[in-house]
Design goal:
Radius of gyration: 63 Å
Helix content: under 10%
Number of helices: 9
Number of strands: 49
Structural class: mainly beta
Largest sheet: 6 strands, antiparallel
Strand content: 15-25%
């Protein structure tokens, strides 16, 4: 079943929902609007859809992946805001501004191959390498059919970046208001003074003369608020009223008037101006030469009584640390220093200490004393605490270090301490003879002694000493009687002999071949027989295999013929075998004289390689993969397959594919002839209109298949089960509201097509379905893999249908035989038939397959293509549902005869040209209110119905009804491409 989805974008619009109040406010997404058209021509209305989307870079990297739920589609229109959905999948987590950023390389991305699989070798997108255009991929499933479409987002990247201007946001610009208009702001910036202020060249006018200033400058603006000096003082000073003779004073915050002192100071000690006082200028101040204070007014006045030496008695001193801000350490001559000695309490090298005590703060202390008469020196302590048991050691320069004491330290030598020099008498056991040195190594000299444990003194040898072991006799001429404990037993000596161990003794003998090991030159060896491990010959031909001869005594070269293999028989005897009789596949081919098998005998795959890479794989289960090592079918090709031409097409070749280079198309062999792929073997290469179902008859009309009969609706796709929209009606029903609750309206099938799961078939011998809305008819056709017949196709399919005019075909309302000419003619009646007559099944619509058998004949209602009842019987919906009707005060432009006749019609009628359309405004589950509605799109009806009489015909066109109407007289017909 071929389906074509039409999906096109109406617009990409960058929407900013409301004004920007700060740069932190983000964009509101990119609005995407599109239109979906179903394969049957329907522009669907669906709700609660899930839509997946991706924003892709030109190199197929995912910049954003999000999902939208609860999306509604109305009359095909879909609208989503990219950037507002729920992100997931491979979404990198970027903001929309980052997604659309063209200023830098974007990394950390998941990128795809062209087939949609992940391309792990690509993880970034460089906008500078392309034009920066993104792609938008939308995916949605409607009626179990997935729809995927790509759209070019063109310049959307710059639209996102336009949220700022060169990095400046809306807060950096002047916003106009009621008081600050755009014109006022432009005039202000256009003034010469503002231009000078902005450029830094403005010079304020001089204000030194009254002519430069006019009016009164308020105090709040830096003025005095007055035009006279006295007025200015009155404004600037506290009120002067009632404060005569007072002076102005301030408390640091505000000024006020106060009375002056009763006797203001005018001079000091009869001196005015800058006064310098002497001791004589101060009452009761002594003029003694030492300038000390000798007459005091008492401690209460802050002066202490001095002792006879002019000093303050210690009893009057109660000093704290703060009373002595700085004191040289040399001034402290006694007492105990209880403060820690540190860089904060002893500065630099100041102070002189004979003794320094380190005090623990309670009762214990350590005193360090400078030796009397000692020279000054410095001690440098180690930079860390020593290990347990170590002692301090100096390097003679005052640098101390921690060292480990010897386990038994020497404290004295021979009762001597300090630098000791020993005499021989100081060494116990040493005589008074001359001193001899003990050599460290080597033999002792004549004036040296040998240590008792010298390793060289393992035994004392004398000339009469008897020897043992491998030696016998005495020194100095012993005999070797053994070697490593084995006796040396030579016999009479002869030339060429050598000493050899015979397993018991060492004997003298001539060496044999078996006695030789290692490398021996060939000149030293005789010809070695095969029995001794030799070849039995003195030379061998180069580059030959070796084999023993028939006697087994000699090794000879072995050679096979050109192209032969070396083989072995069951006894292990080597021979030569030709390819023709072997089981080995040879380069260039070989003959086996029987069927050959190449492959594996265990449960492993078989790979074929070229240039080091696997090109074809045969799995253990028989699946063959070309370009893939994991085939998922009997033949799985990862890449294109080229098929050549073929001429033979027989029953044994049925199913063979070929490429027709003349027609430029793929064809298949159906067992007898070549047909285009997608067809069922018609001679023209198009798919046959035969459905294989007697309940669904279609005929060919050009490149289309059209229902032979007006459609009927059934519960099963093959036209079996329950039939719908075929009930008998009553006179209470009208053409616009039929059927009113008829029992055979499918449950859950709404007037807008939603929930309609039944099928439309072209079934002979039944009353065609009527009272179906345009939307229901389109859905029933789509469920059957068809669509409502296109309006132009309807007119072509009707060509040749005889138009007998009024009064014919009435006999066909109840059936009729193929020879009943009156019954076979098109089912039309006079236009004045009553509604009651129309609404009776037995008096109105006739069953299918009553149009006669002579296509295009005057006694039949069948077109040149064999399509029945295209004139009269029932109006037929076509796929056209977008003609906007005009307005008509009468509500309806009545059907009119085509008085001119023309070449195609005999007074066929047209309805509602330029009139309003009759429609119902329900929600799909009900009719709602039906009536004539101006400017309402109408769906096209063709052919007329039984009651139209002469106005029914092949050119009859009705635009009276919108697609929401379900009238008794409204039927339909389906079609599909071949």
């Amino acid at each position: 079943m071929n389906k074509k989805w039409n999906f096109f974008a109406i617009a990409f619009v960058l929407l900013f929902m409301g004004p920007f109040y700060s740069h932190a406010q983000s964009h509101k997404g990119i609005s995407f609007q599109g239109v979906i058209k179903l394969p049957n021509g329907e522009y669907p209305t669906r709700s609660g859809l899930t839509v997946n989307s991706r924003v892709l870079s030109p190199n197929n990297c995912i910049l954003r992946e999000e999902q939208f739920t609860g999306v509604n589609v109305s009359n095909g229109y879909i609208n989503i805001a990219i950037g507002t959905g729920s992100t997931g999948g491979y979404d990198p987590g970027f903001s929309m501004k980052k997604v659309m950023d063209n200023s830098a390389v974007i990394t950390g991305l998941t990128c795809l191959h062209s087939d949609g699989t992940v391309n792990g070798s690509v993880t970034s997108f460089d906008p500078s390498s392309t034009n920066g255009a993104r792609k938008f991929r939308l995916s949605v499933t409607i009626d179990s059919t997935p729809v995927v479409a790509d759209f070019n987002m063109r310049a959307m990247a710059y639209a996102i970046n336009s949220e700022s201007l060169n990095g400046k946001t809306e807060s950096n610009f002047v916003n106009t208001s009621t008081n600050i208009t755009q014109t006022a702001a432009e005039n202000w910036f256009a003034s010469s003074v503002m231009g000078q202020l902005l450029s830094g060249t403005y010079v304020a006018p001089s204000a030194t003369t009254a002519g430069n200033v006019s009016g009164t400058v308020a105090i709040a603006n830096g003025g005095t608020g007055a035009t006279t000096a006295s007025g200015a003082l009155t404004n600037l000073l506290p009120s002067q009223s009632g404060h005569a003779g007072k002076i102005l004073t301030t408390d640091g915050t505000s000024a006020s008037w106060v009375a002056p002192p009763a006797s203001p100071v005018t001079s000091v000690a009869s001196k005015t101006g800058a006064v310098t006082l002497d001791a004589a200028d101060i009452s009761d101040f002594s003029t003694a030469a030492d300038a000390r204070i000798t007459a005091q007014k008492g401690q209460a006045n802050g002066l202490a009584t001095l002792d006879a030496s002019g000093k303050v008695p210690s009893t009057q001193l109660a000093l704290t640390a703060a009373d002595i801000p700085s004191l040289d350490a040399s001034k402290i001559t006694s007492g105990t220093l209880t403060q820690n000695v540190s860089s904060s309490s002893v500065a630099g090298t100041t102070g002189s200490f004979t003794n320094l005590r380190i005090y623990d703060g309670t009762s214990e202390y350590l005193t360090m004393t400078l030796p009397t008469g000692g020279a000054g020196y410095s001690i440098k302590w180690p930079n860390a605490v020593g290990a347990n048991g170590t002692v301090l050691q100096t390097d003679a320069s005052g640098n101390l270090s921690w060292v480990v004491l010897p386990s038994a330290p020497v404290t004295s030598v021979a009762g001597k301490t300090g630098a000791v020099t020993l005499a021989n008498t100081d060494i116990s056991g040493l005589g008074t003879a001359s001193t001899y040195n003990v050599p460290a190594t080597g033999d002792a000299a004549a004036t040296e002694v040998v240590k008792g444990n010298d390793s060289r003194l393992t035994g004392a040898f004398q000339s009469s000493t008897s020897l043992g072991g491998d030696l016998s006799g005495t020194l100095p001429n012993p005999s070797v009687v053994k070697i490593q404990g084995k006796a040396v037993a030579p016999t009479t000596y002869a030339a060429g002999q050598t000493l050899r161990y015979d397993g018991t003794n060492w004997i003298n003998a001539v060496l044999g071949f078996a006695d030789i090991s290692g490398t021996v030159s060939t000149s030293q060896l005789p010809t070695i027989p095969v029995s001794k491990g030799g070849t039995g010959v003195t030379s061998i031909t180069a580059n030959r295999l070796l084999a023993s001869d028939g006697t087994g005594n000699t090794v000879t070269p072995f050679t096979c013929g050109v192209g032969q293999l070396v083989t072995f028989d069951v006894s292990g005897v080597m021979g030569c075998t030709s390819y023709s009789s072997s089981g080995i596949f040879a380069n260039g081919g070989n003959s086996f004289a029987t069927s050959a098998s190449l492959g594996t005998n265990d449960n492993y795959n078989l790979n074929f390689k070229t240039n080091g890479s696997t090109r074809m794989t045969v799995l253990a289960n028989g699946d063959v993969g070309i370009g893939t090592t994991t085939p998922a079918a009997k033949l799985d090709v990862a890449g294109g397959v080229k098929i050549g031409s073929s001429t033979s097409c027989t029953a044994t070749e049925e199913g063979t594919l070929r490429y027709n280079s003349t027609s430029k198309g793929m064809e298949f062999c159906n067992g007898s002839l070549w047909a285009a792929v997608g067809s069922t073997g018609g001679s023209n290469g198009l798919r046959s209109c035969a459905t294989g179902n007697a309940n669904d008859v279609m005929v060919a009309v050009g490149s289309w298949c059209v229902d032979k009969y007006e459609a009927s609706v059934w519960s099963a796709a093959d036209g079996s089960g329950t039939g719908y929209f075929t009930d008998s009606t009553t006179s209470a029903d009208t053409d616009s509201n039929y059927p009113t609750g008829a029992a055979n309206v499918p449950a859950g099938c709404n007037r807008n097509g939603a929930g309609c799961v039944q099928y439309a078939v072209s079934k002979p011998g039944v009353i065609p379905s009527r009272g179906v809305t345009w939307y229901q008819a389109a859905k029933f056709c789509a469920n059957s893999g068809k669509q409502l017949i296109p309006d132009d196709l309807w007119q072509v399919a009707a060509i040749g249908t005889y138009d007998p005019g009024a009064g014919s075909g009435t006999g066909g309302t109840t059936g009729g035989s193929a020879t009943d000419a009156a019954a076979a003619r098109c089912n039309i009646n006079t236009h004045n038939a009553t509604w009651a007559t129309w609404l009776k099944t037995t008096n109105g619509v006739r069953p299918t397959n009553r149009a006669g058998t002579t296509a295009g004949g005057t006694n039949a209602c069948s077109s040149d293509y064999g399509v029945d009842d295209m004139v009269g019987n029932l109006w037929e919906w076509t796929s056209m549902n977008s003609i906007e009707a005009g307005t008509d005060t009468a509500g309806f432009s009545q059907g009119k005869n085509n008085s001119s006749g023309g070449p195609f019609s005999t007074a066929d009628g047209t309805w509602n040209i330029n009139g309003s359309a009759y429609g119902c405004d329900g929600d799909g589950t009900s009719k709602g209110t039906c009536g004539w509605k101006n400017n309402t799109p109408a769906a096209a009806l063709r052919g007329g119905h039984w009651g139209h009489g002469a106005q029914a015909g092949v050119t009859a066109l009705g635009l009276s009804n919108s697609g929401s109407v379900s009238g008794w007289s409204l039927g339909f017909r389906c079609a599909r491409p071949r």
